[in-house]
Design a protein that fits this description.
It contains 4 helices and 5 strands; from the N terminus they run βααβββαβα. By secondary structure, the protein is an alpha+beta fold. 21% of the residues are buried.
Length: 143
């Protein structure tokens, strides 16, 4: 398996939206957006240049993606979304994808947010070398 990234474009939005929906379900997010809403949001982000989407590929097959945003005057890249499709998990693809991102953004810090209840995700990120930096807390309105 020889993994590589390629920059996503407008034609990739449907696949990105599908993977985003898979990510929302996997991590236990409360995000209620539909597939069409996710596609619209992704299109907007990419058109405005707010984020750059990178498709992780094995040959011609897309096996995952990373959605990145440069921050802190270029000294940090915020990895807003990262997903390896279910059928490619537990093969080292996720860690290899992070390794490739680290090479791509050499000398730049990578930051992520992980939902507290996403225990599997927290374990993955720790295995990839990420360490806790801050705790974001939330107070929801009474139900």
């Amino acid at each position: 398996m020889k993994l590589h990234y390629r920059k996503a474009g407008a034609d990739d939005v449907p696949a990105l939206a599908e993977m985003n929906l898979e990510l929302i379900r996997d991590e236990g997010s409360r995000n209620p957006m539909t597939l069409n809403e996710l596609a619209g949001r992704m299109t907007d982000w990419l058109e405005r240049g707010e984020y750059v989407a990178w498709l992780l590929c094995d040959g011609d097959e897309t096996i995952g993606y990373a959605l990145c945003q440069h921050q802190e005057r270029g000294s940090e890249v915020y990895l807003r979304q990262y997903l390896i499709r279910q059928s490619y998990r537990r093969r080292g693809c996720g860690l290899e994808g992070i390794h490739l991102l680290r090479e791509q953004f050499a000398g730049i810090s990578l930051s992520i947010d992980v939902l507290d209840g996403n225990v599997r995700g927290r374990r993955f990120w720790a295995k990839a070398g990420f360490v806790p930096y801050s705790i974001r807390m939330r107070l929801d309105p009474p139900q």
